[in-house]
């Protein structure tokens, strides 16, 4: 192993450790309750070190969501391979999706959180939906259920989440495997 290869491997190991700890924190506290400080402390790194690997908390959250999406993709792919003449594809997929929600509830919640933050709710304009200041602040005046202090750039589609969704949905629906 050359020096460059070793450095790249070590960098990947550090990144994976950060994502592992972030996953634990996000599972425990959710997106709104987790902070970069919490994740840095859990990973044993400084806050500055976290920012060497991830631009912001949203990108770190996305790294964990991608893990869940990969599990979901594998679950749905196995279900489609198992479908037969007496198991229509839609029913097989629906059951696999439901089973995924039961067997991986933390990832299911994270994927749904991710989805709800990048897609407008029916009948609302995401640019006009006010963002609440944080947990416990009550529901939004429009009654759409947008919660938390999500940066407006995420809702407007210019954030990390939206860029990833556009790419991952193309990969998923085309049946290709794409890296995050």
The stretches of 5 or more residues where confidence is low (pLDDT under 50) are 126-180
Q: Largest sheet at a glance?
A: none
The tally of domains stands at 2
Counted beta strands:
0
| Amino-to-carboxy terminus distance | 26 Å
Provide the structure class.
mainly alpha
Gyration radius from CA atoms, angstroms: 18 Å
Average pLDDT rating: 75
Topology pattern, helix = H, strand = E: HHHHHHHH
How much helix, percentage-wise, in residues?
A: 55-70%
| Count of helix runs | 8
Q: Could you say which overall geometry the principal axes of the C-alpha atoms support?
A: globular
Name the beta content range: under 5%
Structure description:
- By secondary structure, the chain is mainly α.
- It has two domains: 1-54, Orthogonal Bundle (Arc Repressor Mutant, subunit A), CATH 1.10.10.60; 57-180, no CATH class.
- The protein is 67% helix and 0% strand.
- The chain is built from eight helices and no strands.
- The protein has helices at 3-33, 36-43, 47-53, 57-82, 89-103, 105-118, 152-155, 160-174.
- The longest helix is centred in the first third of the chain and has 31 residues, at 3-33.
- The two termini are 26 Å apart.
- 22% of the residues are buried.
- Residues 126-180 have low confidence and may be disordered.
């Amino acid at each position: 192993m050359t020096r460059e290869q070793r450095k790249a491997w070590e960098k990947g190991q550090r990144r994976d450790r950060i994502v592992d700890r972030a996953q634990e924190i996000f599972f425990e506290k959710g997106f709104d309750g987790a902070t970069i400080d919490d994740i840095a402390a859990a990973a044993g790194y400084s806050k500055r070190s976290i920012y060497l690997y991830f631009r912001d908390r949203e990108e770190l959250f996305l790294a964990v969501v991608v893990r869940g999406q990969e599990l979901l993709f594998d679950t749905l792919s196995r279900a489609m391979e198992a479908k037969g003449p007496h198991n229509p594809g839609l029913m097989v997929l629906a059951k696999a999706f439901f089973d995924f929600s039961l067997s991986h509830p933390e990832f299911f919640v994270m994927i749904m959180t991710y989805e709800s933050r990048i897609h407008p709710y029916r009948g609302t304009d995401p640019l006009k939906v006010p963002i609440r200041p944080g947990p416990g602040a009550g529901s939004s005046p429009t009654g759409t259920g947008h919660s938390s202090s999500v940066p407006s750039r995420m809702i407007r589609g210019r954030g990390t989440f939206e860029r990833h969704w556009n790419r991952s949905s193309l990969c998923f629906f085309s049946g290709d495997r794409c890296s995050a």
